[in-house]
Amino acid sequence: MARRHWLDPLARKVLQAMGDLPPDPAPQAQGTPTPSLEPGEAWAESASIDSFCIDVNRASAEQWRQLPGCSDAMVDLLLRLQRGGVQFSQLEDLAQLLDLPEELRDQWQPHLIFRWHGDAPPLPQPKPLDLNGASRAVLAGQLQWPNDRLERLMAERRRQPFKNLADLQERLCLPPDAVEALIGRVRFGAKPAGPSLPPRG
């Protein structure tokens, strides 16, 4: 066999760089099959991932139930708030409202879209106010509500403590913007001390 000159590889690279020789074919590992997908398989996988996104402020009951651990009680509460025109601007507000464990919160996060429909959302406020336990003076100072609305709140909570934002909105006939302003700012603790009145009707 003819002995190859030691400059052959270098000369070949130079000629390839100058375009006088075609590049070497890419090596292919033997025994390694080329991965392939059935027609439409990649699209179907991508579509299934993309379709599992929920517009939090427009989601249906069926969409909410796709999320792991989303109970019927959670779905009912979310739909009631949605019907009342209430919207969410961030995951923290939703997690606080539903009292979501950290594990569920992490599982939900990739699938939630917080798209605000209408004017800009209000800025979140720290230190939630206990609507069932705070004094009238504290409520008046932090809520900045008209006196008649504040009186309705005090009267209603004496009858029965509020359960959540939807319960508060329905019993006080609050407009959506008033409820949205409370998201992330309030909580519903134990029933306040003092005499209670029997439920109406």
**Strand arrangement, largest sheet?**
1-2
What best-fitting shape do the alpha-carbon axes yield? elongated
Helix/strand order: HHEHHHHEEHHHHE
Please, what is the average pLDDT? 78
Q: What Rg, in angstroms, do the CA atoms define?
A: 31 Å
Q: Give the helix level as a range of percent.
A: 40-55%
Question: What is the number of helices?
Answer: 10
Beta-strand level of the residues, as a percent range?
A: under 5%
Poorly predicted sequence stretches spanning 5 or more consecutive residues: 1-7, 39-50, 192-199
Total strand segments: 4
Q: How many strands, which pairing sense, and closed or not: the largest β-sheet?
A: 2 strands, parallel
Please give the alpha-carbon distance between the first and last residues.
109 Å
Instruction: Specify the structural class.
Output: mainly alpha
